[in-house]
Write a structure and sequence with these properties.
The chain is built from 13 helices and 25 strands. By secondary structure, it is an alpha/beta fold. The chain has a five-stranded parallel sheet with strand order 5-2-1-9-21, with helices on one face. α5 runs antiparallel to α6.
Length: 423
């Protein structure tokens, strides 16, 4: 009997959960397509970028993950074109045919058409981005330590973070901790002479917009206590000659602009023109299927589904949505191949959380809120569980607690300085 070919484009939370649910099911041949050869855990990227954990702690090779699976294939490549009429996709390496296609490419950084920002700002969407940011910050500290010019040290030391969502808040808190503890020990002369400040900027009137008011207030209070300058109702409009220019006409000299201000769905060339919505998200029905295409589905951040009664405007672009959609689609594809009825997707909101600083976090549950050290422990526990690989979990837990206990992680290595000269 011929195997049903399922091609999954994207190995993030959505695509990976779908692949893992189908990996041992008889009758299917799974091909996972990704431009990287590893899965990584985006919620912890900022800890890689601030030298608190190693990139290998939050990454795991796809081939290692599925190495004993007979009917699993990994294709390292970038999606170039979808050919729905001939049931195939084109990557930069080959053309792959499918019986069912699942698009799970996630999102990429949205610079809102600002070319200077795109050219010189530092995004936070990939392992490469995190390592680039780590090197960049360390190089600027080295330069500041060797400068006798106060205005030059201020420019080199100022860090502007655009975007007050969870990623912006988390990286602001971690950099503030780094400045308060590590910089004083590693760069004592620069610290005595005076360095710049950390600015967290958002166009809205509050931080952590999707979360509760209590979480928003706690985040602002903790960050301000760490010395972070919060600028609300303020948007970044340009970045010229290492000057961050704001919507109110003001500017700040800064050698480091970290961009966490928005995302846009990755492109899916070849789909019908009317299949995308705002933010380039792919429109899907309640089964995550593209209208008019019987065998093409989209899951996770790349899609927008308006069939869930509790989320009429579509689901938030969160890891839990992606995980749940990937898990259900696996069941539905099995139902579909057996000519049985599929089950519509209904998102079960389990709450949201954000870490702010050392021993400080906020957790919003459907029926409650808590903060502080216990919230921080819950955050750690929840984020270790989904990490791929048992050894990774143990290494991560040990490295984490050691780094936090000593305030002195040993990962401050500048390993790719040549690329940094462009910034």
């Amino acid at each position: 009997m011929a195997l049903t070919k399922i091609v999954i484009v994207g190995g993030g939370f959505a695509g990976l959960n779908l692949a893992k649910k189908l990996e041992d099911k008889p009758g299917y041949e799974i091909t996972l397509v990704d431009q990287n050869n590893y899965h990584f855990f985006p919620p912890l990227l900022y800890q890689v970028s601030t030298a608190f954990i190693e990139a290998s702690n939050i990454s795991y090779p796809f081939r290692r993950m599925f190495q004993s699976k007979t009917h699993f294939n990994f294709h390292m490549g970038k999606l170039k074109q979808i050919h729905p009429h001939r049931n195939s996709i084109e990557t930069d390496k080959a053309e792959l045919s499918y019986d069912f296609l699942v698009l799970a490419m996630g999102t990429e950084t949205n610079y809102f058409g600002m070319d200077n920002v795109k050219r010189a700002a530092l995004p936070m969407k990939s392992i490469d981005d995190a390592l680039e940011l780590r090197n960049h910050v360390l190089l600027r500290l080295e330069e500041a330590a060797g400068s006798e010019d106060p205005s030059e040290r201020e420019r080199l030391g100022n860090i502007v973070i655009a975007g007050g969502g969870p990623t912006g808040v988390e990286i602001a808190g971690m950099l503030a901790e780094m400045g308060g503890n590590i910089v004083k020990k590693d760069y004592p002369t620069a610290a005595r002479k005076g360095l710049g400040k950390i600015y967290l900027v958002d166009a809205l009137d509050r931080l952590l917009t999707p979360m509760s008011e209590k979480s928003q207030q706690e985040a602002a209070k903790v960050l301000q206590g760490l010395g972070v300058t919060i600028m609300l109702n303020t948007a970044v409009k340009d970045y010229v000659d290492q000057q961050v220019i704001f919507s109110n006409g003001e500017s700040i000299p800064s050698a480091t602009l970290i961009w966490t201000s928005g995302v846009i769905a990755r492109e899916a060339p070849g789909l019908p023109a009317d299949s995308t919505a705002k933010g380039r998200r792919i429109k899907v029905d309640e089964f995550n299927r593209l209208p008019g295409l019987y065998n093409v589905f989209a899951i996770g951040d790349v899609c927008i589904q308006e069939g869930d009664p509790k989320f009429p405007q579509g689901h938030p672009q969160l890891a839990q949505v992606a995980i749940q959609q990937g898990t259900l689609l696996a069941e539905n594809l099995m139902q579909l191949t057996e000519n049985k009825t599929m089950r519509p997707f209904r998102y079960k909101d389990k709450g949201s959380m954000a870490i702010i600083a050392k021993y400080k976090a906020v957790v919003d549950l459907p029926k409650g809120f808590f903060k502080g050290f216990f919230a921080w422990l819950v955050w750690l526990f929840i984020h270790i569980i989904p990490i791929a690989g048992f050894r990774n979990k143990l290494k991560l837990a040990f490295n984490w607690f050691w780094s936090f206990a000593t305030n002195d992680p040993t990962l401050r290595l500048i390993i790719r300085p040549e690329k940094e000269q462009n910034h």
